[in-house]
Specification:
This protein is mainly alpha-helical. It is built from 8 helices and 4 strands.
Length: 204
């Protein structure tokens, strides 16, 4: 790689980094002021780290130790999920106790849901599915569909046919709205409850 190409690439990285920083600022403005500074610091460090690795790989241009390290499979956590984890002080590594990550956006659940109380199990599955969907697709902001929860409840032997919809309505404060059953998003209360569910599930 010649000097002119290196200079061009560095300019591109600078523009992309500035865009990412603007995105971080927008995210931090949406969370409580108490957590903003810490959230900004963590997200900024992650962004700068990712950029420096990309630059190192392009500069090496071969089978160097740096490139081998970068090619190591790693979970790429979307920035909104990182902000959530930061806000509720959840270690990012905790995700490995909930899911197994394959290539691309392939994810398999490994957590266990207590089936004793079906209403509680249904809500826990819904919240964790919202998290999973956000990890799979950065354009999905903590959402799920009622049908995917129905199927998961059936697979986990916690499906309550008669009261399935009623369980959602009884916990409506966890959701932005229940008017669109294909896109049910978590409310601030729902994200807070999700944080509690994560802590509970990974320590069981």
């Amino acid at each position: 790689m010649d000097d002119e190409e290196i200079s061009s690439n560095l300019g591109t990285y600078e523009k992309n980094t500035l865009k990412k920083i603007s995105g971080i600022i927008e995210i931090c403005e949406k969370i409580p002021e108490t957590y903003r500074e810490k959230c900004f610091e963590i997200l900024l460090n992650n962004t700068l780290h990712d950029t420096s690795q990309q630059i190192a790989r392009n500069l090496d241009g071969g089978n160097t130790e740096t490139e081998i390290a970068i090619k190591k499979p790693e979970l790429s956590v979307p920035i909104d999920v990182r902000a959530f984890l930061t806000q509720y002080e959840i270690n990012e590594l905790s995700l490995n106790k909930l899911f197994i990550f394959g290539k691309g956006n392939e994810i398999r659940t490994t957590y266990h849901i207590d089936p004793k109380i079906k209403s509680t199990a249904q809500i826990q599955i819904a919240l964790l599915t919202a998290l999973e969907n956000s990890i799979k697709d950065s354009d999905v902001n903590f959402e799920f569909s009622s049908e995917e929860i129905r199927k998961r409840c059936q697979n986990n032997d916690v499906y309550d046919n008669k009261n399935f919809k009623r369980h959602f309505k009884a916990n409506s404060n966890f959701f932005k709205s229940l008017s669109d059953l294909e896109h049910i998003g978590l409310s601030p209360d729902g994200k807070s409850e999700l944080a509690d569910v994560i802590t509970k599930v990974i320590h069981e």
